[in-house]
Amino acid sequence: MDIAKIDLKRLGERVRFFRQGKGWSQAKLAEESGVPKPYISDLENGEAGRPNIQYAYSIAVALDTTLDELLNEAAPASLKGKARKRDEELPPGLAELQQELGLNESDVDMLAQLNFRGHRPRDKEGWRFIWDAIKMVVQRPPKE
Amino acid sequence: MRSVRVGGHRYSDPDIISLIGSTGELVDPISSVLTQARRVNAEYRQYDRTFSDPLQRVKIIASMQGIKVVPMNIEGQRGETRDAILIPTTSGKQILYNPTRPKQRVAFSIAHEIAHTFFPNSICGARFRNIHESGSREAGELERLCHLGAAEILMPIEDFQDVAAGNYGLTNVETLATFFGSSIEATVYRLATAHPDKAVAGLLQYRTSDEQQRLIAREANQRSLFPNFRHISTGIRPKYRRQSCHLSQACDDTYFIPWNKSFDVSSSLYESSDAKVKISFEELPNESGKTGRLETMLAPFQRRNAHNGFGDLFFFWEEIK
Question: Nearest to residue B41, comparing CAs of B67, B65, B15?
């Protein structure tokens, strides 16, 4: 993430895109992030200059995203970019678990990319173990 | 199990092996982890050259790497003993941290989890460390490397040198550890690795050598069979021996203290029985003849196998010009 390569206009557009996606006004974002509204306005218009990283971080947290997604010109470094092609076969047992638990495609994509200590589960029960472990640690953490 | 030797160490952890082979040539994992930690620090420094709150800083670094950092739901996770955990989510990676732990410890744990993402084979950074043998040798290899990465992330060399302002010594460790949100142990080692001249730091343990331990065990068996057996091991006494050793960049190999090397029993470090720093002038215990200022103090957290009367010691040695 080279600061010299950051397109301030594009950064502003991304902040606006995420804010509007939440249906928030600039005032609401200012309230949620603790960042002054004039700064948000300047940021969205590409006129805030070199990003204040503390403010940018507070905005990213409020918008439920990361600085990587806001600042990086490249595609977001998320698992979405590496998602399974639709015609790609699922690892053994995962399709069965998907059917049994009614898992959605994004959850299955996420599971399909996992391996455990260099290996993937080889059957439905192996996948269930991993799925249960993920559910256990992701039990609705409170928003920061 | 497959193992690979590189940089003087043998590794068998699958994540480390994946890092070693990630470029087609053998990659030294220690050097790779340090390089990646320095890269994330350099990215952060482009935006902020001040060093204020270590916890906030490490959260921002995580966010810059595409990792969300959120507190765990402690109510929903009773019995959770970890300070932080890295997990994959459908939108990327997330570090859950325990908000009830001290801020300093949380900062180190988040940095440790960031270091896990430096390994390409760790399911986009996340390892289900809750479901594998945490005490295994493999787990130890990976965790040690991640500790190293965490220390590098939390204590960037430029900032450390600025804040230390030439005051390299164990008396300054607590202040530096608090400032950088790091552990006392990692900060002691950083004193050496960030030192602009020649310095060595590490941990000493009061024990016999491995060979002496084997001899004592063997003779204990003989004693039960042959009461008149002449015991060679009777005169063996433990000494303070080197457990870990960290050198400044200015040091060449002659400053390295090999495993098991010990300080002579006449050394004043044998009087270090409390947290007060003892200072003396001594040679490095490696037959190099290099003399310098030696500081020692009792380690605040003693390892399980530490001696009761002679606890584990941190040492810091710097060459006198």
Answer: B65
pLDDT digits (tens, 9 = 90+) for B153-208: 999 998 999 999 999 999 999 999 999 988 899 999 999 999 999 999 999 999 98
Residue type at position A26: Q
The span from the CA of B266 to the CA of B285, in Å, is 12
Q: Exposed, middle or buried, A89 (CB in 10 Å: 0-12/13-18/19+)?
A: exposed
Q: What is the DSSP string of B177-240?
A: HHHHT--HHHHHHHHHHT-SS-EEEEEEEEE--HHHHHHHHHHHHHHHH-TTPPPSGGG---EE
pTM (2 d.p.): 0.73
Q: In Å, how far are B7, B27, B143 from B20, measured between CA atoms?
A: 11, 4, 16
The three-class DSSP label of residue B124 is helix
Q: CA of A110: how far to CAs of B98, B162, B164, B262, in Å?
A: 25, 43, 45, 51
B208-B214-B218-B221 Cα dihedral, nearest 10 degrees: 70
Taking the CB of residue B221, how many other CB atoms lie within 10 A of it?
10
**Cα B67-B73-B79 angle, rounded to 5 deg:** 115
Tens-place pLDDT, residues A59-105: 999 999 999 989 875 333 443 344 454 445 677 788 888 888 888 77
Residues of B in CB contact (< 8 Å) with A are 14-15, 17-18, 43-44, 46-48, 56, 59-60, 63-73, 76-77, 85, 87-92, 94, 96, 121, 123-124, 127-128, 130-132
Residue A21 zone, left/alpha/beta (φ > 0; ψ -120 to 50; rest): alpha
Contacts with A78 from chain B: Cβ below 8 Å: 66, 91-92
Rounded Cα distance, A14 and A70, in Å = 6
User: Distance (Å) from the C-alpha of residue A110 to the closest C-alpha of chain B?
Assistant: 6
Per-residue pLDDT tens digits for B72-96: 876 666 666 778 888 887 778 899 9
Query: Where do we find the tokens 């003892």?
Result: B278
What is the number of other CB atoms lying within 10 angstroms of the CB of residue A52? 16
Report ipTM for this prediction: 0.77
CA dist A103 → A48, A94, A96, A111, A134 (Å) = 43, 10, 10, 10, 13
DSSP conformation class of B78 = T
Q: Which of B271, B214, B279 is nearest to B240 (CA)?
A: B271
Distance of CA A103 to the CA centre of its chain: 19
